[in-house]
Amino acid sequence: MEINKEMITEVEEQIIAFKKGFTRMVPEVFLNCMEYTLFHRSLAGKNEIDLKDLKEVIYFDSFSRNDKTESYFWEVVAEFD
After folding, report:
1. What pTM was estimated for this model as a whole?
2. pLDDT in tens, the chain (81 residues)
3. Beta-carbon-side half-sphere exposure of residue 37 (alpha carbons within 13 Å)
4. For 38, what's the count of Cα atoms within 13 Å in the CB-facing half-sphere?
5. For the chain, what are the domain ranges?
6. Cα dihedral sign for 12, 14, 17, 23?
7. Cβ-count burial 37-72 (b if 16+ within 10 Å, e if not)
8. CA atoms within 13 Å, Cβ hemisphere of 66
């Protein structure tokens, strides 16, 4: 426990500065009403990427939608799941 206290003391100034800046963008009252999981999702987003959505917003200048290279790219990306 003593180590944790020392670690917190070392970064306390940075934590206070971060909180001050963050609460300028998001009111602290709002943060106090939020559950951790909702807060985390709001900041970090989902852990999943919707391949269909990604295909709709990605455009390759050098390839057409029907080009084999682009097809291979999406096959590889789909395998990451």
Report:
1. 0.43
2. 566 777 778 899 998 999 899 899 888 888 888 888 888 888 788 778 888 988 889 888 887 777 888 889 989 999 986
3. 1
4. 6
5. 1-47, 48-81
6. negative
7. eeeeeeeeeeeeeeeeeeeeeeeeeeeeeeeeebee
8. 0
